[in-house]
Design brief:
The protein has no helices and 30 strands. By secondary structure, it is mainly β. It folds into two domains: 1-95; 179-322, no CATH class.
Length: 322
Amino acid sequence: MPYVVSVNNDGVVAFQATLRGGGSGVYTGDGGPIRTVADSATGPFHEVCSHPDINRDGSTCFYASLKSGGRGLFLARGGEIFAVADSAGPLGPTMNEAGMIAFRVDLISGGSGIFSAGGGVISSIADTTCRFSMFHGLPVINNTGAVAFRADLRNGGQGIYVTSPTREQGSENAIVETGDIFISLGSFPTMNDAGTVAFCATLRAGGSGVFAASKGKIATVLDTSGPFESFRGVLLNNANRIVFSATPSAGALGVFAGRDPVADCLFSLDAPLLGSTVADFALNPVSINDAGQIALRVRLTDQRHFVLRADPVNSSRHQLLK
C-alpha cells in the first residue's frame, strides 16, 4: 500500500510493495510465483514511491526516491534499470506498448509540467507557466503517442486535454472544459487508442455521471438519473469496455462492470471477501487491459492487503460504450 496496481495485455500484474525486512520494490505476478522487477537492495534508488505501469513486453516504469536525494523516474527493461528523468512528480507514470512514458514533474523553476519520454528523448507537453495553473491525476499515453491530462486553468475552470501524437507543447486540444454543462471534472480521465476519452464529471444542472468524448461529441454513459448516486472513477480499454467505481443509491462505494448495481458489482466496501470484509480499494486508468481484466489493491477489515486480478464475464450487458 497505498499505491494502485497495473495489468498488461497478457494479464501480468505489476505492483509496488514494502518488504518486511526493509526497503521496497516493484514486483509482478499472474497468480503463480512473484517476480522481482527492481528493489531498493539492488537498484539505484532508496524507495519506490509510485505505482508501476507495465506493458506487454514486461517493461515497467515507476517513480523512486534517489539514494542521493530527490526523486527519479525509472524504466526497468530486459533485466536492466534505466534512469529516465529526475525530480519526478506524484502518483505515477503511464506507458504504452512502445515503451513511451507520460509523466508529471515538479519543475525546479517552480510549478509543474507534463512530459513524455521515449527513445532517449524527453518532450515537454504542457506546464504551468501559461494557461494551466495545476495538473491533476496522471497523464495517460496511448499507443499512438497521444497524451490525455486533466488541468486547472489559470483564468478559472477545469479541462481535459489531449496532445497530438507529435507531443509538441501547445498542441493540446480541449476535449471538455467546465462551463455551461459541467461544473467540475474528475481527476483521472482515461483514453484508448481510438482517442476516446472517458471521465467522471459533475453537471451544472445537478447530478453527476460517467461520460465519453469521441470525435468532438460527448456521450453520457451513466448518470445519477439511474440507480447510482455518485461516481468516483472510470476505466476504459481498447475494446470500449468501461468499468467504474461508484456509489449506488442507499449502497456502498464499489466497482461495477455494468448498469445493474447488484448483478454487475465486482465488490464494494463492507462486502465479504476472502474471509473478511472490504475496507478500502484502489484502481486507476492503468488497472485495466484490453481483455477487460482488472487489477486491484484491496485492504480488508482484518488488515490484510491483497493484490487481485478480476477476469471478466463475457456478457453483452457489460458493453456500456458502443
